[in-house]
Recover the amino acids of this structure.
């Protein structure tokens, strides 16, 4: 009888506790909604200004919307001649969007913007579970306003989806620490596997931090924690490798050539050009724009795109405006947090949070700093969640420490002053941009730091809280300015960049220009979106007949523009840079003989190196010139050859 008289609150104590928390934190939901609206504004506002952004991936998205075969393989064209040089998950997502809503700038870019908003929300939830709602909100604001995040969540490179999946995986790890259940480790591993299918080995940079924090801080015995890691490891391998195994098991004649590989193998791509080559710099002579030191702009491994490898690479002119703004604060926060919680219990959530986000930051930043292969500054969007989480966590922990020790105020003051000084110095590299903002931020930071240094026992009313808000505004002044500039500017091409042009960066002279309406056009560099002759496209579409590809072009630059303008498949000979060994002369002759290909464009810009792509490229060019009939229609974009007679 007594059990029947129990109230719902007594039957469900966990629900009662959550209800009480919700009442005490009633301000959290409106605040999170406000941050979400901010992120949505930054990532969606005037999004179509970027057009098709990176035409390489936009063309692949169009192909994925027209052919399920192209969708599965990540083909550059609907005829599935060759794939893009990345795994297919990002183009799969964009392809579904284009299939549902039609080809447009918004259907291409909206999935990345949605991933950005979701990243901000999930990061808040992950940080909140370890450090509380205030830390979660600060982390969400910092994430939303990081310039490289604003850039990439408005762009169609795979990095946007990669970042979201890794943050989601981190949330699963944090959730799993609370009860040690394997299902959370399995979920995190599956998400890392999906991230692997977005950008291969870069997804694994978070694994050391994930494994460490699970082994140290998860509930359960050591044997159980090791078992959880073993299960998670197997799940990661299966979730990562199934697509690679399937693709390499299919006969080459029944699938597209794997773009970026040396032997038409997905395994070769992930270990070579997209893997160890990025870290150690070999294969540097084979690729142009996005590979090593071969062509023109990339004279020595990663140096042409990211500066000389070394400890301070993330602070050089290539990376500095993208990600470095709050690194000083994050480092101070990490050190302070580990000291504050050094005597905490093994399963302490806060210390586990510092191990997680600090490990993420240190490993990823270390690899980015020292890798001698290809690296682009926009890769650093993968650092933004860790930096944001540490800023949120450190702010809250140092604030709490201030109430009982002067060292809390000292830590906050040092972090604010060093970070604001660095931001002001960075703003000074572009004297005509946001003039005076750095000086104002420094003045505000000094005032805030002076108040924060006053011991809490003296009692200054609400002045310290106001000082903390001012300090946060001071350290975010530069990122806000860069982010707003990024939103207002056109970003396209292969190497986008956030904020104004900085002297000495790649693209500072050639990669930046002005559009007709005065907007900044960023990206530039080889592989950028090119302008295609309308008469050429109209002619090719009108004379396509039953051909699979309306034209074959060397490299992806011109091929992508023609494909997007016509809506038809274009053969990108030689893949992205025009240097892949496909097609061979014999294969090309077979395509012509069977009527799958009639027109070939030579000298239309080609790959980044300007050469003619495909295996045995010189023999292909000679055969085309000897057997084709020149058509006077290319309009200065090279020479178009009609090979109907060769058939």
């Amino acid at each position: 009888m007594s059990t029947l008289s129990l109230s719902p609150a007594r039957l469900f104590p966990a629900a009662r506790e959550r209800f009480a928390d919700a009442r005490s934190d009633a301000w959290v939901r409106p605040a999170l909604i406000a941050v979400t609206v901010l992120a949505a504004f930054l990532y969606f506002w005037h999004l179509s200004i970027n057009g098709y952004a990176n035409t390489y991936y936009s063309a692949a998205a169009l192909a994925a919307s027209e052919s399920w075969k192209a969708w599965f393989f990540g083909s550059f064209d609907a005829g599935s001649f060759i794939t893009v040089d990345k795994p297919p998950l990002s183009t799969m997502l964009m392809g579904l969007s284009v299939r549902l809503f039609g080809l447009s700038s918004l259907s291409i870019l909206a999935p990345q913007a949605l991933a950005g908003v979701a990243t901000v929300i999930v990061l808040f939830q992950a940080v909140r579970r370890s450090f509380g709602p205030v830390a979660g909100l600060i982390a969400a604001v910092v994430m939303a306003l990081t310039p490289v995040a604003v850039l990439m969540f408005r762009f169609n490179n795979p990095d946007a989806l990669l970042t979201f999946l890794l943050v989601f995986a981190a949330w699963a790890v944090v959730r799993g620490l609370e009860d040690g259940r394997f299902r959370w480790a399995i979920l995190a591993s599956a998400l890392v596997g999906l991230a692997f299918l977005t950008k291969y080995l870069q997804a694994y940079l978070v694994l050391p931090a994930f494994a460490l924090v699970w082994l140290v801080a998860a509930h359960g015995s050591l044997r159980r924690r090791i078992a959880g890691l073993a299960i998670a490891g197997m799940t990661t391998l299966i979730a990562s490798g199934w697509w690679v195994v399937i693709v390499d098991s299919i006969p080459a004649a029944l699938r597209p050539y794997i773009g970026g590989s040396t032997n038409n193998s997905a395994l070769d791509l992930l270990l070579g050009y997209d893997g160890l080559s990025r870290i150690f710099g070999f294969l540097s002579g084979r690729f142009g724009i996005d590979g090593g030191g071969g062509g023109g702009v990339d004279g020595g491994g990663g140096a042409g795109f990211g500066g000389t490898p070394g400890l301070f690479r993330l602070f050089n002119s290539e990376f500095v405006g993208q990600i470095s703004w709050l690194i000083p604060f994050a480092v101070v926060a990490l050190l302070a947090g580990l000291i504050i919680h050094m005597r905490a219990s093994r399963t302490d959530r806060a210390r586990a949070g510092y191990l997680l986000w600090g490990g993420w930051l240190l490993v990823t930043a270390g690899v980015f700093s020292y890798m001698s292969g290809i690296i682009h500054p926009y890769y650093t969007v993968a650092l933004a969640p860790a930096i944001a989480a540490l800023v949120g966590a450190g702010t809250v922990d140092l604030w709490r420490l201030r109430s009982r020790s002067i060292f809390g105020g000292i830590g906050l003051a040092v972090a604010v002053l060093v970070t604001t000084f660095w931001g002001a110095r960075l703003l000074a590299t572009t004297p005509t941009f946001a003039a005076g903002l750095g000086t104002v931020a420094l003045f505000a930071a000094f005032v805030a730091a002076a108040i924060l240094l006053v011991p809490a026992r003296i009692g200054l009313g609400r002045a310290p809280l106001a000082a903390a808000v001012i300090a946060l505004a001071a350290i975010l002044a530069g990122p806000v300015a860069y982010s707003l500039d990024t939103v207002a500017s056109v970003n396209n091409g292969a190497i986008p960049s956030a904020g104004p042009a900085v002297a000495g960066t790649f693209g500072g002279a050639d990669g930046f220009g002005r559009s007709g309406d005065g907007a900044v056009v960023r990206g530039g560099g080889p592989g950028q979106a090119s302008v295609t002759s309308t008469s050429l496209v109209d002619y090719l579409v009108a004379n396509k007949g039953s051909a699979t590809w309306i034209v074959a072009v060397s490299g992806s630059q011109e091929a992508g523009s023609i494909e997007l303008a016509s809506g038809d498949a274009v053969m990108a000979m030689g893949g992205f840079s025009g240097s892949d060994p496909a097609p061979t002369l014999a294969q090309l002759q077979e395509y012509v003989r069977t009527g799958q290909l009639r027109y070939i464009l030579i000298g239309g810009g080609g790959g980044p190196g300007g050469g003619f792509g495909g295996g045995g490229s010189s023999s292909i060019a000679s055969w085309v010139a000897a057997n084709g009939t020149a058509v006077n229609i290319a309009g200065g974009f090279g020479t178009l050859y009609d090979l109907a007679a060769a058939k």
